[in-house]
Amino acid sequence: MADETDVLNDAWDYKGRPAKRSTTGGWLSAASILGVELVERLTTLGIAVNLVTYLTNTMHLRSAYAANSVTNFLGTSFMLCLLGGFIADSFLGRYRTIAIFAAVQALGVTLLTISTVIPALRPPPCNEGGRCVPASTLQLSMLFLALYLTALGTGGLKSSVSGFGSDQFDESVANEKAQMMRFFQWFFFFITLGALGAVTVLVYIQDNIGRRWGYGTCVCAMVVALAVYLSGTRRYRFKKLASSPLTQIARVLFASWKNRHLELPLDPMALCQENFSEMKKPRFIHTKQFRFLDKAAILEPNLGLPERPTNPWKQCSLMDVEEVKMVIKMLPIWATTIMFWTVYAQMTTFSVQQAMTMRRHIVGGFSIPSASLTLFFVVSILLIVPLYDRVIRPLSRRITGHPQGFSPLQRIACGLILSVLAMVAAALTEIKRVHAAHPSSSVVPLSVFWLVPQFVLVGVGEALTYVGQLDFFLKECPQGMKSMSTGMFLSTLSLGFFFSSILVSVVDKLTTHGSSGGGWIADDLNKGRLYDFYWLLGILSFLNLGVFFFCARGYVYNDARMAEEDEMKCLDNMHEEL
């Protein structure tokens, strides 16, 4: 007879039987999943950080167009995480989603490799007179097909990796819960490891051996990672599909609009309630904000007081309504973090183009690849994480009283402040670079290490903002909508990249019109005024910081709201007893 403690009640094996602790899940399964994430980061970042040089030097595209192509590629990758999460939650499950979209990403990178191998898919090199023929429509179509297939694969894969990895551990058991927490630490480590390999080894291969070899390496790595992932199928733990949080939000909005003409009862208990004994959902506080959404929970006439809604598209539970309200309250914080990623986008585009024009030779005649300056992102993260844990958190805890030193919103604020300083440093460095440029030389006699401050400031800011956002969305997102928290976080990255594209297009159009020098964002940066664009980003970031402070000051954490409610109930009970 099988040991009942060895059988899991909420997980199944690959044959649909209740999963056993002894034969499924654990670190062996998690390691196969982490390998896929490492290769995804290696591939996506390896393409993105060096893409602007390929678009300008090989495809002969304008600087502004090339920069927008990079940010649109990254923005689409992160935005498609929402689609991937919806598909995983509602239709395919996380296992199939990862397998299918990993194959899609491998296909995209394969097409990208082919586009660098076949001469007809690239424009001819510039002639001796410096005349360059831009890529044709057919050549760009092939390139963008490959890029956006890669982005589709990235979005679908990335949406499910962390969730499926955590599914391999049982949170109800103390030792497995501790292992799951360590899994998230290793997850972040593998992301950083993939990024490190992308900005060093992969960029070096692309610049010194050939693009075809760099992209081909990514294809081989993805095929191997996918094979290892599929080989672990017998050991994985699978969870049942859950309804997508996006569906819940749509239901509440639709039902509240449909019932907009109905009168709300004065007593919230007259609204549709849930059967908590079966659903096992956490308690919640009925709030008076956004009361129009309460209309989604108005009971249908002549049906009495059902424990659950009869039709969720006509009548939602009060619990579902309150969860949607919690998401709406988070939106101002969500919106004011987008600007940070707009600043971040410049480090993968114009900062790389700046590095291309500067002196990059170091000891022994070795030339640093321009895209490898993003290494300072990775180094900054690797340094700030232990520094925060060992030094900053103990010191700040004495000042703020918060167990983590700084609260999630305070960490985000620090990241936003650093983004403003980064744009000031970038503008000052660009002014120095332009003044040092000589018309007769394509190389500016200025060391590329002058760009390090802006990379470090954005890198440290990324570590603080990334962790702060992730912590904020995980803790403040409703319990029933936890799978959406990562999607909300990643959507700020996506919109930040898209906003960068819009901003670059607008600035390029306004400053180029009627200008003989090519405007702020000229193809020849030495003839442009990129520093003015950096000043503009600095001003916008500063204004955004002010809006963030205003929104953050009025935000009340869920734990604080619950504690306040408990205190009020305690006082009411005391008054009743008196």
TrEMBL record:
Entry's localization field: Membrane
Which topology term describes how it sits in the membrane? Multi-pass membrane protein
- Keyword tags: Membrane, Transmembrane, Transmembrane helix
What GO cellular component entries does it have?
Answer: membrane; plasma membrane
Q: A GO molecular-function term, please?
A: nitrate transmembrane transporter activity
Give the stretches traversing the membrane: 65-86, 98-118, 138-157, 186-206, 212-230, 327-346, 366-388, 409-428, 448-467, 488-507, 533-552
Secretion signal span: none
GO BP annotation list:
basipetal auxin transport; lateral root development; oligopeptide transport; photoperiodism, flowering; response to nitrate; response to water deprivation; transmembrane transport
Principal localisation: membrane
* Pfam families, per the entry: PTR2
What protein family is recorded? Belongs to the major facilitator superfamily. Proton-dependent oligopeptide transporter (POT/PTR) (TC 2.A.17) family.
Record protein name field: Major facilitator superfamily (MFS) profile domain-containing protein
This chain's source organism reads Amborella trichopoda
Taxonomic lineage: Eukaryota, Viridiplantae, Streptophyta, Embryophyta, Tracheophyta
